[in-house]
Amino acid sequence: MSEPAKLDKLQDILGVTFNDASLLVQALVHGSYLHENPDFTLPSNERLEFLGDALLGLIIAEKLFIDSPELAEGGMTKLRAALVRMETLARLAGALGLGDYLYIGCGEENSSGRGKPSILASALESLIGAIFMDQGFEACRLFVLRLFDSEMGEAVDERLAEDYKSALQEITQARHRTAPSYRIVKTTGPDHAREFTVEVSVNGTVIGSGSGRSKRQ
After folding, report:
1. Is there a catalytic annotation at residue 125?
2. DSSP state, 29?
């Protein structure tokens, strides 16, 4: 596949059409490629990575602040850190197939560089920076929120569950000197839309129950 065709395919995957395609290319250029191709006309993606990292942190922080008023500052800080860590970014970049489009040196190519979490995470941050430079903050924000939608929902659910379970444990430890226990009492629905009912007990006495699409909910 020709380079223009590959870039068109990637833009279709991203749902973003660049006005300046050179910004998209730059976001895909790993430093190792320039070491082996010194005449290449574009710089590496390192500067775009710096910009994308800052934008990503801001966009995720704003989303958590607006959509999760029940989260305290500490909870938002932990959630943002979990969402923007290398492992999460690499997983999302892998889901986009970003590694297939990278410009990397032969050394990295031969050592499975296209699948390295650090390289994939950096490329995704660079891509975010490139979208901002090409189309502005709003387009960049929409891309990030679309990309992180599922990850963010799961992370918020998990954080809240941990916070609520911790709070309940503190109460039961203080009043009854024991921790609560949880039990799944019912699972309904098809595999793709399960609903769980969970009971919580203290000293063998059921004190509450709840249902949700995940155990954490």
Report:
1. yes
2. B
The model's pTM is 0.73
HEC assignment per residue over 78-123: HHHHHHHCHHHHHHHHHHHCHHHHCECCHHHHHCCHHHCHHHHHHH
The amino acid occupying position 213 is R
- Digit-coded pLDDT (tens) for 148-183: 988 877 766 666 566 677 778 878 888 888 889 989
Q: Strand 195-202 relative to strand 181-188: parallel, antiparallel, unpaired?
A: antiparallel
Distances (CA, A) of 161 to 94, 119, 179: 28, 33, 15
68 and 78 in contact (C-beta within 8 Å)? no
pLDDT surpassing 70 at residue 137 = yes
Q: Which one from 49, 108, 125, 134 is the annotated catalytic residue? A: 125
Q: Tell me the pLDDT of the chain averaged across its residues.
A: 89
Grade residue 74 by pLDDT with cuts at 50, 70 and 90: confident
> How distant, in Å, are the alpha carbons of 68, 83, 179 from that of 63?
8, 12, 34
> Active-site residue among 49, 53, 108, 134?
53
Does 8 qualify as catalytic in the annotation? Answer: no
pLDDT tens string 15-31: 999 999 999 999 999 99
**What number of CA atoms fall less than 13 Å from residue 173's CA on the CB side?**
7
Q: Is 20 left (phi over 0), alpha (psi -120 to 50) or beta?
A: beta
CB of 126 closer than 8 Å to CB of 45: yes
* Listed residue (97, 182, 103, 93) closest to 144, CA to CA: 93
